[in-house]
Amino acid sequence: LRTLRGIQERTGGFTEFVPLPFVHHSAPLYLAGAARPGPTRQENLVVHALARLMLHGAIDNVQTSWVKLGITGTQRMLQAGANDLGGTLMEETISRMAGAENGSEKTPDELREIGAGISRPVVQRDTFYGRVRSAPQVPLMVE
């Protein structure tokens, strides 16, 4: 994270940090014994929380992955420092092929429910984290 922060301070090129956990359940490397299992829920929580602390003032947005972590895991990451739910997605297959069981798409209303479940308002955003008033299939972030 220090290296990433240094790169950001020199270039200003990152809009977000997205710690994507390895989904191992059906991953060929894991099944062949060449990779360890993916991170635990606690390890994911620590990465999201440390990212918020260590990247503060350099990279403002920390995204969580509902596809990889599920609704409850995503809510925990939002409580630990993430502020971005990612996108609605359409036909996500990579995580599902690796064994993730959290679905392949969500509607904006379903993403709003994730935020509402932890009393965090959700707004639509564009690629550069500007607010979008009314547009279909755009990523959402929490405030």
Provide a descriptive summary of the structure in words.
With 143 residues, this protein is mostly helical. It has one domain (2-142). 39% of the residues lie in helices and 6% in strands. The protein contains 6 helices and 3 strands, in the order H-H-H-H-E-H-H-E-E. It has helices spanning 2-11, 28-31, 41-54, 66-80, 94-97, 108-116; strands at residues 84-86, 122-124, 140-142. It has a 3-stranded antiparallel β-sheet. Helix 3 crosses helix 4 (66-80). 27% of the residues are buried. The model has no long low-confidence stretch (mean pLDDT 86).
What is the element string, with H for helices and E for strands?
HHHHEHHEE
Helical content class: 25-40%
As for the number of domains, it is 1
Report the structural category.
mainly alpha
**Beta-strand content estimate:** 5-15%
How many β-strands, per DSSP? 3
Overall shape: it is globular
Our Rg estimate from Cα atoms comes to: 15 Å
CA(first)-CA(last) distance: 23 Å
List the uncertain runs.
none
Instruction: Count every helix, treating DSSP H or I runs of 4 or more residues as helices.
Output: 6
- Strands of the biggest beta sheet: in what spatial order? 1-3-2
Q: For the residues shown, what is the average pLDDT?
A: 86
